[in-house]
């Protein structure tokens, strides 16, 4: 189970953040040392990383899917490399149809619908497996701070409503490492959604001459079915408020919101409570795609019945300037291929 980030991470630096500063300084030094002193594995394939500066959700997985679609239109054959958070499998293993989220994690199941996907806690081993496949580009979903594999392009996602919080390193704030070295290692910023909390970060990237792109969360399919009944929304993701906003924007009459920890495994009791409430109130159950794929297929259990009786909200990330992102990725790929001798 993943705990929800504390709310004070996203406020001005307060007493708790100040008290934890010594620990944050130590954590930051260790993170920076790992990033700069680890000898990375250099894959023969171009490696594009979709990451973020902070812990928690920022739209990395749907952005990785959007990047894969752009690459496929350009004639590339991308393959995803992911750690598979929440799954028991260390890998490297290729995600196949019918695999359980308990084994490989929820995000890999979503990625595998769009391109071959490898789950590997050891990213070097995962990259080497992809090299044996019919892939031309490795797309890393997360792993920006992991220095075990060299990256030819690093795209950073940030939520416009939360930004980088109080700008402090764990545990005083949400940053995974000190900000300055992270900005130096990044190549472009993708700002997801509307808001002003990322404005300072946008300025930093702009001053450094790095590309800044806007992206919006949209719906992938017709969702008129949302208007049939009142909706009970439930979510076990890092940014549940974004899901509930999207539900409302799509026309749902949202009567209740149920929030669970990120990557949550629903118990029989929790699933049955949702089913009972929906029946008593004559409501439709709607959840995120990540939550839906985590639910089992077996209807003999309450979580399995919950999957059968709920619907996932089909979202996608829409990049404001797809051509600019495509050019950036293509240039990085071409630079990499220019460095590799033809055999």
Tell me the radius of gyration: 20 Å
Q: How far is it from the N-terminal to the C-terminal residue, by CA? A: 47 Å
Number of strands: 13
Name of the top-level CATH class of the largest domain: Alpha Beta
The largest sheet, given as strand count, sense and whether it forms a barrel, is: 9 strands, mixed
SSE order, as H and E?
HHEHEEHHEHEEHEHEEHEHEHHEEH
Task: Outline the fold blueprint.
Layout (H helix, E strand, L loop, with lengths): L14 H5 L1 H17 L9 E5 L8 H14 L4 E5 L10 E2 L6 H4 L1 H6 L5 E3 L3 H9 L5 E5 L11 E7 L19 H7 L2 E5 L6 H9 L3 E9 L11 E5 L4 H10 L4 E6 L8 H14 L2 E5 H6 L7 H8 E4 L1 E5 L2 H18 L4
Parallel strand pairs: 1-5, 1-6, 2-4, 2-5, 6-7, 7-8, 9-10, 9-11, 11-12
Antiparallel strand pairs: 3-4, 8-13
Summarize the structure.
The protein is α/β, with parallel strands linked by helices. The protein is built from 13 helices and 13 strands.
């Amino acid at each position: 189970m993943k705990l929800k980030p504390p709310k004070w991470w996203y406020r001005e630096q307060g007493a708790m953040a100040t008290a934890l500063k010594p620990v944050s300084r130590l954590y930051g030094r260790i993170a920076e040392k790992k990033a700069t002193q680890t000898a990375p594995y250099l894959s023969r394939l171009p490696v594009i990383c979709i990451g973020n500066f902070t812990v928690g959700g920022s739209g990395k997985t749907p952005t990785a899917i959007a990047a894969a679609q752009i690459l496929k239109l350009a004639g590339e054959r991308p393959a995803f490399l992911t750690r598979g958070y929440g799954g028991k499998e260390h890998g490297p293993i290729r995600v196949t149809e019918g695999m359980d989220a308990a084994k490989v994690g929820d995000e890999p199941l979503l990625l595998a619908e769009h391109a071959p996907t490898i789950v590997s806690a050891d990213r070097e081993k995962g990259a080497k497996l992809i090299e044996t496949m019919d892939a031309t580009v490795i797309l890393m979903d997360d792993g920006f701070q992991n220095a075990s594999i060299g990256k030819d392009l690093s795209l950073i996602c940030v939520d416009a409503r939360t930004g980088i919080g109080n700008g402090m390193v764990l545990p005083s704030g949400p940053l995974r490492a000190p900000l300055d070295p992270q900005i130096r290692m990044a190549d472009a910023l993708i700002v997801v959604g509307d808001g002003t909390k990322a404005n300072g970060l946008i300025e930093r990237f702009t001053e450094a001459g790095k590309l800044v792109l806007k992206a919006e969360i949209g719906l992938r399919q017709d969702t008129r079915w949302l208007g049939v009944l009142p909706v009970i929304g439930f979510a076990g993701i890092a940014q549940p408020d974004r899901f509930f906003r999207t539900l409302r924007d799509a026309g749902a009459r949202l009567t209740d919101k149920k929030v669970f920890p990120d990557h949550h495994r629903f118990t029989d009791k929790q699933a049955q409570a949702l089913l009972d409430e929906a029946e008593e109130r004559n409501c439709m159950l709607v959840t995120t795609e990540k939550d839906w794929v985590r639910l089992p297929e077996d209807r003999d259990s309450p979580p399995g019945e919950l999957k059968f009786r709920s619907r996932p909200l089909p979202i996608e990330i829409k990049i404001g300037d797809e051509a600019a992102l495509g050019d950036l990725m293509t240039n990085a790929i071409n630079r990499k291929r220019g460095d590799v001798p033809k055999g």
